[in-house]
């Protein structure tokens, strides 16, 4: 038993050792690979004597035309302690990334690195990150001829930085704007620059105005849509709320508590209560009345839907005062929405009084007139009984 335990511990130690050796080997191979790449890059670069524009002699480390987008990290020893210029022209640099500048900064032995040639690369602007890195390299001149520098208003921040640091760019007179082939140095003339800034501000204001107009139209359109379809939105929210609670919005025929829910204006209340309600009650029609059956409080739409849901039919008493009420339109929309969501299109009854013309009825009712039963209340008292019997039959039928 002890031998097996010792053997197990030895196997585990052997496994750990193998994994450790593998990891060390892997790291070594990666470092070796990186050194080989840097060495190859360095081999593609030549060193020669040169004289700069100020007559200073030094060495030129020429890596131009090497099809590279990253600087070599291996520093030739002959460049130490001498005036040095680095030429990475005719390559694929689109921007001077942090890695690029870290590589330059790593040349700590190049105390006299004074020129960086970036001609004919793919640099279109000096980003904010590049600007900070440029500023970290002191006494270094940059050469940007042949790069597709963009002079669009979109890059005004980059151009302004270049204008403020013109002394760091030795060949701005040869750098062309990609949009119009004008010299960037020409753009930096104070008078021309002020005009350029004003033009950009005008474009910015135009863009801002268009966006503001679009947002304003969107807001007003949204408000109009919400106002128009408010009942539908509230009804959908109510259905989701009821479904979440497991409460059905539609009741079966035998669960109705009332025969009719009567919607009317306040001006018609006494007429309904004293004259119509008793007559309907005598004919065995159970009506929902506000003062008798309503429960105070709660969501308005939910209250209307609950009342309608407890009734076999809905009757709108349409009079001149009813048409003047905003509430009447809300109630009509709610009833119609509930009817069509629950396939109860035939449960709306309209009782017209005061000689109201059909053309004056709410648009919501006229749009579904094909499935509405309507009655016109006569002025002659002797005709009332006939209308009541027809109305009772309509209210009691399914």
From TrEMBL:
Domain TIR span(s) in chain numbering: 256-395
CC per GO annotation: plasma membrane
Family matches, as SMART domains: TIR
SUPFAM superfamilies membership: L domain-like (SSF52058), Toll/Interleukin receptor TIR domain (SSF52200)
A Pfam family that the UniProt record links to this protein: TIR_2
Coiled coil: none
Transmembrane helix recorded as keyword: yes
GO MF term list: signaling receptor activity
Membrane topology term: Single-pass membrane protein
Subcellular location(s) of the protein: Membrane
Keyword annotations of the record: Membrane, Signal, Transmembrane, Transmembrane helix
Transmembrane segments: 205-226
Gene Ontology process terms (BP): signal transduction
PANTHER family associated with the record: PROTEIN TOLL-RELATED, TOLL-LIKE RECEPTOR
Family: Belongs to the Toll-like receptor family.
Protein name: TIR domain-containing protein
Organism field: Magallana gigas
